[in-house]
């Protein structure tokens, strides 16, 4: 009997997702019951195929256009990822038949078994993982991918910043034993680089928000170093540092173990009023103190800021620009400027951005020309404008939810 084709549609923005999902199938040999296709580009689709997507809110126009091109085929379109975690309405309108909400390893296994049983899945079927499954059970290794994504050691977040969805899910930590198993496999496979995924690098193992567990972190770092990998990176993407969780003890721990000479702090705004509104749990003073600590230990600091928040005023942006100039004069920093995008599942999900005026653009260009900051915000601003143009034309009722 011919095996059902299951196509994993990969893009640069979801390449870290599918290895772990496939790992959940491979553990039971479920994958061997299907013809697995990893598609980095569109492929020919035939009746009976299953095609799987994973995406965030900014990627909706791309996914939507590709789904439209599949019209007329008797296929099953399934999808998960951050956008669907917070919203299933728009993906259903786009033509996605099966949706995954929440962490997907267990429900993806259930989905695989349903495919094998040939049961008819109802239109708009939602697989939702309601219980917090231990991430110890799954590793990002898959025989269908040559690369190994960074290991997720901290799932969810202890905070609930208004622009972010991550804190809307219960948080959990991967055990030291599970991390050790990952490192043993990495060494066996002859990889030489170790990186981890953590929404807040130094809150791994913490009992409450902002309370660092130095002993747990030391245990983690000592274990990794014991494997003698050539490259161990931490405190930069994808394990950035939350301001207010860094100190001289931790800077020494980093310096002793990691290869990176820079760290990344999520400053997010130069306005203390905005930081309070965002529920960030830190101040601009915390950011300054952490920069000083990092520089004293020999680390350069990448600082992430977001501009264009809902109802952001020129005065607020001016406050952020002044803060950037202030720290740039006295510290070794590189500013990365991003533009706000309303993400599904966040408190700002249906809030409209504020766009840059001419005076703002002059200031931002000066920051770029002087080498102080990147101008990534331009690409992000265009992306959010393009998104709303697409949404207004194709799904006006959904667009009307924004305010």
Name a few traits of the molecule.
about 400 residues, 15 strands, Rossmann fold, TIM Barrel, alpha/beta, 6-stranded parallel beta sheet, 2 domains, single chain, globular
Structural description of this entry:
With 403 residues, this protein is an alpha/beta fold. The protein folds into two domains: 4-128, 3-Layer(aba) Sandwich (Rossmann fold), CATH 3.40.50; 150-399, TIM Barrel, CATH 3.20.20.70. It is built from 14 helices and 15 strands. The strands form five sheets. The chain has a six-stranded parallel beta sheet with strand order 2-1-3-4-5-6. A three-stranded parallel beta sheet has the order 13-14-15. 37% of the residues are buried. The model has no long low-confidence stretch (mean pLDDT 94).
What can be said about this structure in brief?
With 403 residues, the chain is α/β, with parallel strands linked by helices.
Shape estimate: globular
Strand portion, in percent?
A: 15-25%
Mean pLDDT across all amino acids: 94
In angstroms, what separates the terminal alpha carbons? 53 Å
Find the CATH superfamily of the largest domain: Aldolase class I
| Whole-number tally of structural domains | 2
């Amino acid at each position: 009997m011919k095996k059902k084709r299951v196509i994993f549609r990969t893009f640069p923005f979801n390449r870290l997702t599918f290895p772990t999902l496939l790992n959940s199938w491979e553990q039971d040999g479920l994958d061997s019951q299907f013809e697995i296709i990893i598609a980095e580009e569109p492929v020919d689709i035939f009746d009976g195929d299953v095609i799987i997507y994973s995406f965030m809110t900014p990627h909706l126009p791309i996914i939507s256009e590709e789904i439209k091109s599949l019209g007329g085929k008797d296929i099953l379109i399934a999808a998960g990822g951050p956008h669907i975690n917070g919203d299933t309405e728009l993906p259903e309108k786009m033509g996605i038949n099966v949706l995954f909400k929440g962490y997907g390893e267990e429900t993806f296994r259930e989905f695989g078994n349903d495919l094998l049983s040939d049961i008819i899945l109802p239109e708009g079927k939602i697989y939702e993982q309601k219980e917090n499954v231990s991430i110890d059970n799954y590793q990002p290794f898959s025989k269908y991918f040559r690369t190994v994504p960074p290991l997720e050691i901290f799932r969810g977040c202890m905070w609930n910043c208004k622009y972010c969805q991550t804190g809307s899910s219960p948080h959990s930590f991967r055990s030291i034993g599970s991390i050790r198993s990952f490192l043993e496999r990495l060494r066996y496979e002859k990889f030489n680089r170790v990186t981890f995924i953590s929404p807040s690098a130094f809150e791994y193992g913490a009992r409450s928000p902002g309370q660092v567990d130095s002993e747990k972190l030391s245990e983690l770092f000592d274990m990794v170093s014991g494997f003698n990998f050539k490259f161990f990176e931490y405190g930069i993407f994808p394990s950035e540092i939350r301001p207010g969780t860094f100190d001289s003890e931790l800077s020494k721990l980093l310096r002793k173990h990691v290869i990176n000479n820079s760290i990344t702090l999520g400053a997010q705004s130069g306005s203390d009023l905005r930081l309070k509104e965002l529920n960030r749990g830190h101040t601009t003073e915390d950011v300054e103190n952490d920069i000083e600590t990092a520089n004293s230990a020999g680390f350069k600091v990448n600082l992430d800021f977001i501009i264009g928040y809902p109802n952001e005023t020129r005065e607020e942006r001016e406050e952020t620009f002044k803060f950037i100039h202030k720290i740039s004069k006295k510290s070794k920093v590189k500013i990365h400027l991003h533009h706000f995008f309303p993400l599904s599942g966040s408190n700002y999900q249906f809030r409209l951005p504020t766009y840059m005026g001419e005076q703002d653009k002059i200031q931002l260009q000066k920051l770029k020309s002087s080498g102080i900051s990147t101008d990534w915000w331009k690409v992000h601003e265009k992306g959010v404008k393009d998104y709303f143009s697409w949404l207004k034309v194709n799904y006006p009722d959904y667009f009307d939810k924004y305010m």
